[in-house]
């Protein structure tokens, strides 16, 4: 795995309220077609996302209510092909990660896997066919960050 | 506040074990003078840090054992001057953030403040006199990421 974090997703109780908070800090969300179900903020080289906490837990395949195993934050390692999801998941497994979700299709058209690091911090390995990671490992949803 | 995340810090139980895990993924830590007390991994434009969970909570001024108010993860917004810490903290306060720590000196030579977003996600606003955020908002501790 290359050395990068392409997305941080914060689990939130109310997307509109949380998005408004970040907008009040002067941030501008990425325009997208998914309505108010998720919010993305393009940062230099990576994206901060806001997503309902219960749906984020479900995405990772962990119980939302158990704060011992779900902190409410996930990190993502985006890749540019499905086979890279498998390669990264295999490497994480060999490094001793707990694989929470084997590589599989996701409803939004992507392909992903989840693992937990030694402290239970959750990582998604994600292939999103609508975006790319560039040669410098930067993940851009909009503009140049 | 500009749109950037300059550091993600993961609270860990055992720095050496966690650092070894990320090294097993192929990552290389930044060489620094602080021994095994903290580990930094330079990513494109930002840094992933590993720090003892209890010390991370103490740094933010929240109880480490209360998982309702401390997820074990903090985000940082680095700036290039002490007065920018005040400006960002003021903006966060006006946006409705809960200020957990007013701007103040830190033992390692920096100057910082902490706030919680509407869901309790913790942000450090940090001035580190030994590093800089560049004009694109990228935070580099080593090389070009």
Describe the structure in your own words.
2 copies of one chain form a homodimer. Chain A is α+β, with helices and mostly antiparallel strands. Chain A has one domain: Roll (2,3-Dihydroxybiphenyl 1,2-Dioxygenase, domain 1), CATH 3.10.180. Chain A has helices at residues 15-24, 53-60, 82-94; strands spanning 7-12, 39-43, 46-52, 73-79, 98-105, 111-116, 122-127, 132-133, 139-140. Chain A has a 7-stranded mixed β-sheet. In chain A, strands 8-9 form a two-stranded antiparallel ribbon. The longest helix of chain A is centred in the middle third of the chain and has 13 residues, at 82-94. The radius of gyration of chain A is 15 Å and the shape is globular. Chain A starts with 6 loop residues before the first strand and ends in a 5-residue tail after the last strand. The mean pLDDT of chain A is 94. At the A-B interface, strand 1, helix 1, strand 2 and helix 3 of A face strand 1, helix 1, strand 2 and helix 3 of B.
Short précis:
Two copies of one chain form a homodimer. By secondary structure, chain A is an alpha+beta fold.
Strands ordered across the widest β-sheet of chain A: 2-3-1-4-7-6-5
Low-pLDDT residue intervals, each spanning 5 or more residues of chain A: none
Strand content of chain A: 25-35%
The count of β-strands of chain A is 9
Radius of gyration of chain A: 15 Å
Percent of residues in helices of chain A = 10-25%
The CATH architecture of chain A comes to: Roll
Give the termini separation of chain A: 23 Å
- Counting helices, strands and paired strands, the structural category of chain A is alpha+beta
Taken together, the total number of domains of chain A comes to 1
Q: What characteristic shape of chain A results from the CA principal axes? A: globular
The number of helical runs of chain A is 3
CATH topology of chain A: 2,3-Dihydroxybiphenyl 1,2-Dioxygenase, domain 1
């Amino acid at each position: 795995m290359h050395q990068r974090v392409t997305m941080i997703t914060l689990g939130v109780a109310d997307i509109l309220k949380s998005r408004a908070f970040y907008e009040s800090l002067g941030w501008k969300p990425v325009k997208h077609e998914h309505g108010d179900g998720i919010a993305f903020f393009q940062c230099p080289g990576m994206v901060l996302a806001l997503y309902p906490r219960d749906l984020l837990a479900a995405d990772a395949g962990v119980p939302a209510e158990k704060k011992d195993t779900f902190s409410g934050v996930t990190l993502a390692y985006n890749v540019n092909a499905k086979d890279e999801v498998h390669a990264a998941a295999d490497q994480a497994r060999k490094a001793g990660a707990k694989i929470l979700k084997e590589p599989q299709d996701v409803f939004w058209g992507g392909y992903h896997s989840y693992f937990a690091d030694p402290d239970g911090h959750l990582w998604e390995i994600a292939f999103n066919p609508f975006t790319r990671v560039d040669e410098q490992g930067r993940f851009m949803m909009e503009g140049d960050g």
